[in-house]
Amino acid sequence: MFNRSFTTSILLAAALCAFAYAQEKPIGQFESHEDVGNPAKPGSVVYDAAKQTYAITGSGVNMWAGRDEFHYVWMRMKGNFILRARVEFLGKGVDPHRKIGWIARHSLEADSPHVNATVHGDGHASLQYRRAKGAETERVNFTAKSPDVIQLERKGDTFIMSVANFGEVFMKPETTEVALGDEVYVGVYVCSHNKDVYETAVFRDVEITVPARDGFVPYREYIGSNLEVMDLATLQRKVLYRVKDSLQAPNWTRDGKALIYNHNGLLYRFDLKTNTPAVFDTGDVKRNNNDHVISFDGKTLGISSSSAEDGNVSMIYTVPITGGKPVKVTRKGPSYLHGWSPDKKWLVFAGRRNDEFDIYKIPANGGEEIQLTTTKGVDDGPEYTPDGKYIYFNSFRTGAMQIWRMKPDGSEQTQITNDEYNNWFPHISPDGKWIVFITFPQDIAPGDHPFYKHVYLRLMPIGGGEPKVIAYLYGGQGTINVPSWSSDSKKIAFVSNTVAGSTSR
After folding, report:
1. Is residue 289 part of a domain?
2. Residue 501 — pLDDT band, cuts 50, 70, 90?
3. Whole-angstrom distance, CA of residue 124 vs CA of residue 65
4. Which residues pair with residue 17 across a beta bridge?
5. Terminal-to-terminal C-alpha distance of the chain
6. Which of 155, 186, 209 is the last residue of a domain?
7. CA gap 305, 317 in Å, rounded
8. What is the pLDDT of residue 308?
């Protein structure tokens, strides 16, 4: 006979140890997970590292009045932050008031002060908050129905909730003031709103961003960068690589094996098989900026760089795709390369001449530049279509920065987008069917494309139509300045930003 009581005690102790270990082990970007408020049915989380998704199962009677019950996947953070994710309940569910979203809390106690950006099972979204320990919960409702993108931003004691139906821009945000203290718990959660029921939700494109500090000096200070790729069939994003400073403007090589990006004035080749970078040889040209383009045949890289010899203004060079000694093409500056013609005979670029930014083209082997646009203001981002029939570019000649196109000789300049946002850097898919571009909000001056702002990546048919948001980002300058489509037109590469090393782990 064995001692059943002793064995039970051993098994219980082992289970508790295993549970404690699970609680301490990081889950993706988060520190830990646990039930808040002691719900009757314990919750759980499954992190899929390949897809970078979180499947959270939780119970709990409610998150309301003076206390909460839910399952929480959390981390501790100090200062300002931006939290964003795509969210989705799995299955029909039981209670229409079941909840998912982001929550920031002073503590893990059930009655803690908090700010909760939530979407309910019946589709309504609200900003909910408890101002003091044990106080009644308050809320502000959105008119949006069943949004699946949730963002919660903190600026001191101000919390801002934004929501969107994926593919659309954020609707008007809701704001509240709640004093939670400098260090808070932040994370994603599930509450079933029924003590006897489990609900499960999936969180994807989970972004935990620490923005640039107040008083940040652009082009002198930088924050961290994430190198990302997106599969356009599934719209699934994946972070491949992170650095603590500024990584910018990834090109996708024509053979699909690597990305070429700018980092601290040097170009790097990022091997997509090993996820490792190596310096790309540009000889003695070592002050490269983020305007570099691979020729359509994949054999030559055009780069933009400055030197003391040229008065520290950007000039255009070409170099073999395997690296080597660059050959200078332009003699006037500043000149910023954005495109090759498909036959490799021409380079098209943005140049500042007489305090005006216009579009120019120049023979790839050097020669006289030809001015293609002459309107007042900024014309930028020129890029040839794969058939060579058009050059797409961005211009704010009608007010906001918009996407335009013209014939390669500068004729038939036609506006393609027409909205209240500022649209920059149109990139044409290799199959010639799509345009992806970056969109800055209305509060950004139309002639500027700064670092570290809320931006969108949007996709539209080559001939025009309604742009669709495919990524909600904190980024801007350097995010997608250059052509970054994979050669099969199935993926894009881009950069998002956050202060590195700011969270406790």
Report:
1. yes
2. low
3. 18
4. none
5. 47
6. 209
7. 8
8. 87
Supply 480's token pair.
Answer: 């997608």
Same domain, 490 and 357: yes
- CATH number of the domain residue 303 falls in: 2.120.10.30
Beta strand spans in 32-137 (E): 32-36, 44-48, 53-58, 63-64, 67-68, 70-78, 81-90, 99-105, 114-120, 124-130
The residue from 178, 209, 240 where one domain ends is: 209
Cβ contacts of residue 368 below 8 Å, gap of 6+? Answer: 362
pLDDT of residue 11: 36
Nearest in space to 348 (alpha carbons), one of 400, 295, 414? 295
**Which residue stretches of 289-379 are H helix?**
none
Query: 404 lies in which domain range?
Result: 224-498
| Helix, strand, coil tally for the chain in percent (to 5) | 5, 50, 45
Q: Which amino acid is at 184?
A: V
Do residue 125 and residue 234 come from a single domain? no
Are residues 164 and 41 part of one domain?
A: yes
- Burial group, residue 357, by CB count within 10 angstroms (0-12, 13-18, 19+): middle
Per the structure, how many domains does the chain have?
2
Q: What is the DSSP letter of 374?
A: -
- CA dist 101 and 86 (Å) reads 9
- With a pLDDT cut of 70, the percent of the chain lying above it is 94
pLDDT at 504 over 80: no
Per DSSP bridges, beta strands 99-105 and 81-90 are unpaired
Q: What is the CA radius of gyration of the chain?
A: 26
Average pLDDT rounded to a whole number, residues 266-280: 98
The identity of residue 163, as a single letter, is V
* Sheet with 32-36, side-by-side order of all strands: 32-36, 70-78, 183-191, 99-105, 114-120, 124-130, 138-145
Do 336 and 470 belong to one domain? yes
CA pair distance 126, 139, nearest whole angstrom: 6
**pLDDT tens digits along 134-161:** 999 999 999 989 999 999 999 999 999 9
383 and 281 in a common domain: yes
- Helix or strand or coil: residue 254? coil
Residue 22: inside a domain: no
What pTM was estimated for this model as a whole? 0.93
Show the tokens assigned to 8: 């039970």
pLDDT digit string, tens, across residues 86-114: 999 999 999 999 999 999 999 999 999 99
336 and 391, same domain (yes or no)? yes
Domain assignment present for residue 214? The answer is no
Based on the fold, state whether residues 83 and 154 are members of the same structural domain.
Answer: yes
Contact 475, 463 (CB under 8 A): no
Residues 6+ apart with CB under 8 A from 185: 72, 74, 75, 76, 104, 105, 106, 107, 108
218 falls within a domain? no
Q: How many residues does the chain have?
A: 505
Q: Which residues pair with 438 in a beta bridge?
A: 424, 457
Residue 463 confidence (pLDDT)? 83
